[in-house]
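[Q] Does anyone have a clean structure-token version of this?
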Amino acid sequence: MEYVAIVLVLVLLQYSFFAFMVGLARGKYEVKAPAVTGHEMFERHYRVQQNTLEQLVVFIPGLFLFASYLYAMTAAGIGMLFMLGRMLYYKSYVTDPKSRGPGFIISFISAHVLLIGGLVGAVMKFL
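[A] Here you go.
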């Protein structure tokens, strides 16, 4: 489970990085709080942060369920794939939002494999 904890911390640090970049963009593009619209580049950073937050709601429980009921090392590996997908999503969305698809798909599928795998593992344990 240590690998799972390490992956979780890395993913949360990545999310913190995205939040920090939103703050930098807010200052650079002069988008005054509490506004969340304004300059397009600020909005790109903001959407990466918000979409990542939305994905974390599925990812975090899925990571722990999969690790608990199936295989911790596999959960950690899929978790790293999620993290790589999020980084690809970040880089592509900020560069050109139309190119965000691959990063989104990688992280979305990774999170849902963990969640569904956790469900399957729990059902198998129950039966």
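[Q] Thanks! Anything notable?
[A] The chain has a mean pLDDT of 97.
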